[in-house]
Design a protein that fits this description.
The structure holds 2 protein chains of 2 kinds.
Chain A (H helix, E strand, L loop, with lengths): L1 H8 L15 H5 L5 H7 L1 E6 L8 E7 L2 E6 L5 E9 L2 E9 L6 E8 L2 H10 L10 E6 L5 E11 L9 E4 L17 H9 L4 E8 L5 E3 L4 E2 L4 E4 L3 E2 L5 H7 E3 L8 H11 L4 E6 L5 H17 L5 E6 L2 H7 L10 E3 L3 H6 L4 E2 L9 H9 L3 E4 L5 H10 L4 E4 L2 H9 L2
Parallel strand pairs in A: 9-10, 9-21, 10-16, 16-17, 17-18, 18-19, 19-20, 20-21
Antiparallel strand pairs in A: 1-2, 1-8, 2-3, 3-4, 4-5, 5-6, 6-7, 7-8, 10-11, 12-14, 13-15
Helix pairs in contact in A: 7-8, 12-13
Chain B lengths: L19 H16 L8 E13 L13 E12 L4 E22 L2 E23 L2 E18 L2 E21 L4 E12 L4 E16 L1
Antiparallel strand pairs in B: 1-2, 1-8, 2-3, 3-4, 4-5, 5-6, 6-7, 7-8
């Protein structure tokens, strides 16, 4: 009893203070770079010298004009914005080890811009190895901690292949202490910067039939930062939810419509996995799935939206829908169920192993195979090296991104 | 591309070991065992009723400024006092958590009157220990049934949810008759699952139902 009281009295939530950039001159004053520079500098880099916390290699990747670096160790990533500032290339942002609470600022300034530009103009990209990239690793408060030197080795090997790095819950869980709440619009945007090219989002239905992004059965303190709602999500109308509940990052709980519209308009994400959290939500979700698949086509955007069928109950309900076999779906249960509903995707849990023979059969039938939810770097490496899957669902997209691009 | 959201302040996380109250209680209970080691000579079934105020001490950023945090707090407990110091029992009651009542709140759907009331019904297994003739320490462990009524845009929704929690406090009382005592009680209820804390200050009434 005493131990329980003592443990309860001391909350064990880890603390993380994300850096802020209110007065950052690089972010505020830089002019954006042109795509030839970004295309040329993407690739695998050696980390020169001592790099205990970072590993021996890093992958440099541009997403929507943002410089994203994925390090070998523990999925540590850096997200930087910048461009040209007074005849130098300058970038400023933050780094984070997603498995710990370690984070801080990072800056990169390249004075020798003319050499880089002449290499890019000449097309001999491998000559970039002669121009080391220096990262100043800072604390959250901006104090200098370490200097890392990156040296270009080669382009990312599988840059253009159709492999899905799928961010769980729109980018990660609240327990991962990301800067934004799980299943929020801001996190969906952020998921691209930490390596995802696809997202899995959780869908619940309001009492008036509007699908919203929310994971749990109830409104609770894990997901709701402030507000006065408690009890089952399905008890409340959309207006009540918008009036009374905010996510931990202060944003509204998004509707599925808002999320899909945002993904089409503002991201380069290529796949959305709709994880339905209650059977009664299915009939409200399918029309939106069709509508936004069509909208993506009209915008000439490659976006695959599929409904997840996680159990027999969902499969049975799905099969009562008209023309269910034409609706893109993801079956998690078995290959037999996959064939029964003509699912485009088979998605077994990772603990079942690589199942190469089975996955080969699935792919020969013209379907995709995805594995969930894989977070351990050792197994991610194994599944990428030995598995036949078309993608990995993960809470740590930066680990998958590093392991995938560095192969 | 809007970039600024990348550089967003951190999510609020409550990390401080801030329930010093519980730690003091534990130390006091531990000390009391040695200071007042004594053996009761009888079994007793005690009923305690307490009524007073309940104050929600949750962090200020979790509720709007205009929320009312103070209201009625009443509890009813039944204790079995065996032939040693530690008594055991059950506690329930009705604890105010917070209310919000505001007209003309602007939302994205227009202005509306907003109202919200939260109450808690504790369902606790409680332990008590007499450390002095007039002072008892007690702690509880169990669930709080949180009852919430929210209304906006003319629609009212009532929901309830069970949340794990615990309580700790002390009671100062004076014996007024053979079977009766009156006193004051201070309790901290920590509804851990919901991250809500209530402090109750109550008048207490104790009655010995049975002794053998």
């Amino acid at each position: 009893m005493l131990v329980i009281v003592l443990q309860s009295g001391c909350t064990d939530n880890p603390e993380i203070v994300h850096p802020t950039f209110d007065n950052d001159t690089i972010i505020q004053q830089s002019t954006p770079l042109q795509s030839p520079f970004m295309n040329a500098t993407e690739g695998v880099y050696d980390i020169v010298g001592s790099s205990v916390n970072w590993g021996s290699k890093a992958v440099l990747h541009w997403t929507n004009g943002v410089l994203c670096i994925y390090f070998e160790n523990s999925g540590t990533y850096a997200v930087l914005k910048g461009g040209i500032v007074q005849n130098t290339f300058a970038f400023s942002g933050f780094w984070r080890n997603p498995l710990t609470i370690n984070t801080g600022k990072v800056q990169c300034i390249i004075q020798d811009t003319s050499s880089i530009m002449s290499i890019i103009r000449s097309g001999n990209i491998s000559d970039l190895a002669n121009i080391p990239l220096t990262l100043n690793i800072l604390s959250t408060a901006g104090e200098n901690r370490q200097t890392l030197t990156l040296r270009y080795i080669r382009p990312s090997k599988f840059r253009n292949e159709n492999y899905f790095i799928i961010a769980h819950r729109g980018g990660g869980r609240n327990s991962d202490l990301l800067p934004f709440s799980e299943n929020s619009i801001n996190l969906i945007r952020f998921s691209e910067y930490i390596g995802a090219n696809a997202v899995e989002i959780d869908i619940k239905l309001t009492s008036d039939g509007i699908p919203i992004l929310y994971h749990d059965t109830d409104f609770n303190s894990r997901l709701i930062g402030n507000g006065t709602l408690i009890g089952p999500v399905e008890s409340f109308s959309f207006t009540q939810i918008r009036t009374f509940a905010k996510l931990h990052d202060g944003s509204d709980i998004p509707t599925l419509r808002e999320a899909l519209q945002f993904i089409i308009d503002s991201t380069t994400l290529r796949f959305v996995w709709l994880d339905i959290k209650s059977v009664n939500a299915m009939r409200a979700i399918i029309p939106l799935q069709k509508e936004f698949t069509q909208k993506a086509k009209e915008k000439n955007k490659s976006l695959f939206i599929a409904t997840g069928l996680a159990s027999e109950e969902f499969i049975q309900d799905f099969m009562t829908l008209p023309q269910f076999s034409t609706i893109p779906s993801i079956v998690e249960t078995s290959v037999d169920d996959m064939r029964k509903v003509n699912a485009r995707v088979f998605a077994p849990r990772w603990t079942l192993g690589t199942q190469n023979e089975l996955i080969q059969t699935v792919k020969q039938e013209g379907r995709f195979a995805l594995v969930w939810t894989l977070d351990d770097q050792k197994f991610i490496r194994k599944f990428l090296a030995e598995g036949q899957f078309n993608g990995i669902l993960t809470n740590f997209p930066s680990i998958v991104a590093y392991e995938y691009y560095v192969q | 591309m809007a970039y600024s959201p990348i550089f967003h302040p951190s999510l609020p996380t409550n990390t401080m070991c801030n329930n010093i109250f519980f730690i003091v209680m534990i130390i006091a209970v531990c000390m009391s065992g040695t200071l007042h080691a004594q053996i009761n000579t009888k079994n007793e079934l005690m009923m305690s009723a307490a009524a007073g105020i309940s104050v929600n001490s949750i962090d200020s950023d979790r509720l709007p400024d205009y929320a009312r945090r103070t209201g009625f707090g009443g509890t009813l407990s039944l204790f079995w006092q065996p032939e040693h110091l530690l008594s055991i029992g059950f506690e329930t009651g009705w604890l105010f958590m917070n209310t919000i009542d505001k007209e003309n709140v602007m939302t994205q759907f227009g202005a509306t009157a907003v109202s919200s009331q939260w109450q808690a019904i504790p369902l606790l297994c409680v332990f008590g220990m007499k450390i002095h003739d007039n002072v008892s320490l007690y702690g509880g462990l169990g669930y709080y049934d949180i009852i919430a009524v929210n209304s906006s845009f003319g629609t009212k929704v009532a929901t309830s949810q069970m949340n794990a929690g615990l309580s700790g406090g002390f009671d100062y009382h004076i014996h007024v008759y053979n079977k009766t005592a009156l006193g004051m009680r201070l309790t901290l209820h920590n509804i851990t699952e919901l991250q809500q804390r209530l402090i109750t200050l109550q008048f207490s009434y104790h009655y010995s139902l049975l002794a053998w």
